[in-house]
Amino acid sequence: MSNELDTLATALYVTTDDLLTHRPDLAPVRPKVGFTPRLTDAELITLAVMQALLGYTSEARWLRYAHDNLRHLFRYLPKQPGYNKRLRRAGELIQAVIRALAVDTSLWTDDVWVVDSTPVECGRSKPTVRRSELAGWAEYGYCASHSRYFWGLRLHLVATLGGLPIGFALTGAKADERQTLLGILAADPALAGDRPGQTLIGDKNYFGAGFEAELAEAGLRLLRPARKSEPERPGAALFKPLRQVIESINQTFKAQLDLERHTGRTAAGVTVRVLQRILALTAAIWHNDHTGAPVHRSLTAYDH
C-alpha cells in the first residue's frame, strides 16, 4: 500500500469522524440494546473507499488483504457478512460524506458542469435477467457511446470539468435523461439555486424547449450540440473537446473504479456499491485538491 493512500485514509477517517460527531443522526440506526460495533462508522467508510481505490471487487478477497496489510490502520476488521450488511445500511452516510468532501474543495464553485449517463451492467445471461431481484428496475438499454446493448441500470452524473461529482442518480436503463436531470436538481434546490448563471454542457439527448425552459428557471444555461433538424447552436466549437471530459470521467469510474464489476445482486447492494465508487473518486479529488496535486482526478497515487 502506498504512503499516499495511507495519508488519504487517515484524512478521510478524521473528516468522517468529525462529521459524525457534529451530525450523529447521519449514522445508521442501531437497536438500543446490543453490542457496540468494534469497527466505527468512520472506519467503515474509510475501509470502503480503500477497497474501491485498490480495485477489490470481491469483499471476501478485500478483507483477506486488509487482515494481512491494514492492521496498522484498523484495530478490528469484520468478516465478510458483517461488512456487507453494515455497508448496505450506510447509504445515507456515504451520500453525506460525498457532499461534505465535495463542498470542501475548490472545484465545488466551478461555474461549468457537464452531464451525462453511463451504463451500469447488472447481468448478461437470460437466466440472470429472469431470476434477478433487480428485475423491474434493471432493464435492457443501449449505450450509443460504445455501440452496445446491456441489461442493467444507468448512472446519471452531473460533474465539474475537473471530475468532481456534483449530483447523481441511479435509474433503469431506459429512463429519460432529461427528466432524471430535472429530478436531481429538484431533490436539491440549493444546488442550482445558489449559483445563478451556471453553465451546463450535455449531449444531443438533453433537448426540448420545455426542458430548457425548466433549466432556465433553475438558473442554468444549457449548451449542447444541435440536432439534425436544428440550426447551429451557440458554443458549438466547445462541444467536441468538452464532450471528452464527461467520457473521461465515466471511463475513470469504469476502468479504474470497476463500476460495472460491482457484483451487486439486490437494489441495496448495487446502490451502495455505486455510491462507494462515487465516494472514492470524490475522496481522491478532495485529497488531491488539498495537497496541491497537479491533476485533481488522478487516482494513480492511491491504486497500489
Order of helices and strands: HHHHHEHEEEHHEHEHH
Number of strands: 6
CATH architecture of the domain at 110-262: 2-Layer Sandwich
What's the number of helices?
A: 11
Question: Spans with pLDDT under 50 lasting ≥5 residues?
Answer: none
Shape by Cα distribution: globular
User: What is CATH's topology name of the domain at 110-262?
Assistant: Nucleotidyltransferase, domain 5
Strand content: 15-25%
The helix fraction, in percent, is 40-55%
Q: Briefly note the structural class of the backbone.
A: alpha/beta
Distance between the termini: 6 Å
Q: Return Rg in Å.
A: 20 Å
Give the overall pLDDT as a whole number.
Answer: 92
Instruction: Report on the biggest sheet.
Output: 6 strands, mixed
Report the top-level CATH class of the domain at 110-262: Alpha Beta
Short description:
By secondary structure, the chain is an alpha/beta fold.
Pick out its properties.
6 strands; alpha/beta; Nucleotidyltransferase, domain 5; globular; six-stranded mixed β-sheet; 11 helices; 304 residues
Outline the fold blueprint:
Blueprint: H1 3-22, H2 41-54, H3 59-69, H4 80-88, H5 91-103, E1 112-123, H6 126-131, E2 139-143, E3 148-160, E4 165-172, H7 177-187, H8 190-193, E5 198-201, H9 209-217, E6 220-223, H10 236-256, H11 267-291
Parallel strand pairs: 1-5, 5-6
Antiparallel strand pairs: 1-3, 2-3, 3-4
Could you characterize what this model shows?
This protein has 11 helices and 6 strands. It has 304 residues and is an alpha/beta fold. It has a domain of 153 residues: Nucleotidyltransferase, domain 5 (2-Layer Sandwich). The longest helix is centred in the last third of the chain and has 25 residues. It is globular. It starts with a helix and ends in a 13-residue tail after the last helix. The mean pLDDT is 92.
